Amino acid sequence: MEVKKLGISWQFLIVLVLILQILSALDFDPYRVLGVSRTASQADIKKAYKKLAREWHPDKNKDPGAEDKFIQISKAYEILSNEEKRSHYDHYGDAGESQGYQKQQQQREYRFRHFHDNFYFDESFFHFPFNSERRDSIDEKYLLHFSHYVNEVVPDSFKKPYLIKITSDWCFSCIHIEPVWKEAVQELEGLGVGIGVVHAGYERRLAHHLGAHSTPSILGIINGKVSFFHNAVVSENLWQFVESLLPGNLVEKVTNKNYVRFLSGWQQENKPRVLLFDQMPTVPLLYKLTAFAYKDYLSFGYVYVGLRGAEEMTRQYDVNVYTPTILIFKEHIHKPADVIQARGMKRQVIDDFITQNKYLLAARLTSQKLFHELCPVKRSHRQRKYCVVLLTAEATKLSKPFEAFLSFALANTQDTVRFVHVYSNRQQEFASTLLPDSDTFQGKSAVSILERRNTAGRVVYKTLEDPWTGSESDKFILLGYLDQLRKDPALLSSEAVLPDLTDELAPIFLLRWLYSASDYISDCWDSIFHNNWREMMPLLSLVFSALFILFGTVIVQAFSDSNEERESSPPDKEEAREKTGKTEPSFTKEPSSKIPKKGFVEVTELTDITYTSNLVRLRPGHMNVVLILSNSTKTSLLQKFALEVYSFTASSCLHFSFLSLDKHREWLEYLLEFAQDAAPIPNQYDKHFMERDYTGYVLALNGHKKYFCLFKPQKAVEEEEAMGPCSDFDSSLHLGECRGKSSSGLGPRPIKGKLSKLSLWMERLLEGSLQRFYIPSWPDLD
């Protein structure tokens, strides 16, 4: 009895310590201690920490609880200032400091459970956590309700895609995908992807609204539209699914040929330009997600520093090619407005960087929405925001008044003053409200300083008395007004109600109607055949049954008509034939067994569409054998290629493709640079360098291990063999016809002779005895 009592008291103490520790952990919230939100930036956290540390420092604050408060503040800052600890706290509710104790506790739980297993079936016997609290603790942070989905997730999906999992109780498959889901969520959420979990048992309305009728289901939401995930639940497939949700034109690939055009587009689109320099051939998912979030404010481009010709840009803008670099360009394309350069960039750092450079130095007011953002309404006397507006005529090139206004804005950037400009010919009502009625400003530029008082359009303003020419005296007068405005806001003596700005960048009515119609049709299609397919099953069954009955009736009627005609045919037909002694010629078609062609091989063209699946993401152990040809040699080379490789088509690890030399010569020459000892290197200073003939080359590409083997074509056969077919022609042919046929026959045979020893090369390829040429990464096909 004493041992039993001691055992119970020992277990009771352990449980008591656990309860106390859990209560203390639940009570401590670093966000609440510092008074910041969960989405606060590092700058906000640091600012809050400094403020609270000064207030509760024991040397300055004599409150008895100041020391404990100061310790909590320091601990909270220690957790939130460290990205790893902060992420661990956001996911698990602690900073990962008690892992040693947790390990000991897990060992104790295992011993107790082992004792418990001798008498009872434990849930781990089936590897199924029936304890819903332990399983739901992972998804509890991301649980969605119908109102939350409609009011927050759908509007937010226009800025970032959402990945949502549909789960339920007693779902074995849900438990099976849980480790992969957890890993993918940790990675994708850090990139800016929204995460959601819907419990189908408690949120049936939301699950039905999303069109999920089975668990587990994974779907993506972007721009308010739902797309279902249908592949195997692995981390790589989830990444590809999220990337497939994004529009394809978010990021433009910039090279030394088009970077000037890309950077000069700020004047037409009224957006700053963002350039990312990186060593990856494809655009990173983090950069695509950032471009989607800020697509309404900035235009994004990507520069692959490994591409030939990129040295000109990296040298001009002083970019370190070994570190990811982001440049933001505004009105000046020869010098970036801001630069950030770091390894392993975090999404929060990129967001802070882009938010600070969201607008041009002197942006053009193209819509009422942009006017509200650049010139907000005054909220208090301490939060005054002034707008200096340049009213000028539209010009294809930058005018002298605008360049002077731009230089003045660059030299006098302030938090309380925003510089903008308006095309007076496009916003005539807006410009005429701010300009006086005199003819002084007719056809000339003018500058007004205004402050918005309410959202209805009421403003106070002051327009400079003389037209703006950009001279030094004009700049001096404007600077004097701004200095005086800080001391005396009553300088803005005029009042007016501004009309709403017309949206200059909005598409025309026909395009808007087409976009709306296409969206409506796609939504109807999804709602009928995707989301509500269960409700449509009776209707579809009825339609297909009616079609089947109609088709069967037509077939039966056709057969019955043919039998009736055969039976009603006159029997005297053969007798009449015998009497006349005439027999009609009868053609009997014997059943011929079709012999499959020996050289039939499935060969696909390597294009931008098939490039990723047939090479870049080719499964391990698989190779793609690619024939190089041109438009003139396509038919003859493909026939010979099929004959040579037909005996190797039984291998499921080999795929066969062809590449057009007329379209992708640069891609081929880039690969051949890595096979310098086996292939001729094009010399750009050679006048015949663009005429080099690569037809008949064969590349065996291993997409997974990033290497290739090269087959060089043999020399052409003699011309006498090509002239042979002419001797077989009938003597009745004219001499010109014979010459024409022989001259036309010169082409295919020497070209086919290039692949005469391809089968031997294929045998060596399967043996693994060919030389391999490795490449750092597969270049883009374009």
Low-confidence sequence ranges:
1-8, 98-135, 568-599, 716-746
Strand content: 5-15%
Spatial order of the strands forming the largest sheet: 10-12-11-13-14-15
| Largest sheet descriptor | 6 strands, mixed
Number of H- or I-type helical stretches: 30
Mean pLDDT: 78
Please bin the fraction of helical residues.
Answer: 40-55%
| Gyration radius over CA | 38 Å
Number of strands: 21
Tell the overall outline: globular
Secondary-structure class = alpha/beta
Measured distance between first and last alpha carbons: 83 Å
A few lines on this structure:
With 782 residues, this protein is an alpha/beta fold.
Question: What would you say this structure looks like, in words?
Answer:
It is a single chain. Helices cover 45% and strands 14% of the residues. By secondary structure, it is an alpha/beta fold. The strands form 4 sheets. The chain has a 6-stranded mixed sheet with strand order 10-12-11-13-14-15, with helices on both faces. It has a 6-stranded mixed sheet with strand order 16-18-17-19-20-21, covered by helices on one side. Strands 5-7-6-8-9 form a 5-stranded mixed sheet. The longest helix has 35 residues, at 533-567. Residues 562-594 are annotated as: Disordered. Plays an important role in regulating the size of autophagosomes during the formation process. It is a single-pass type IV membrane protein. Residues 29-93 form the J domain.
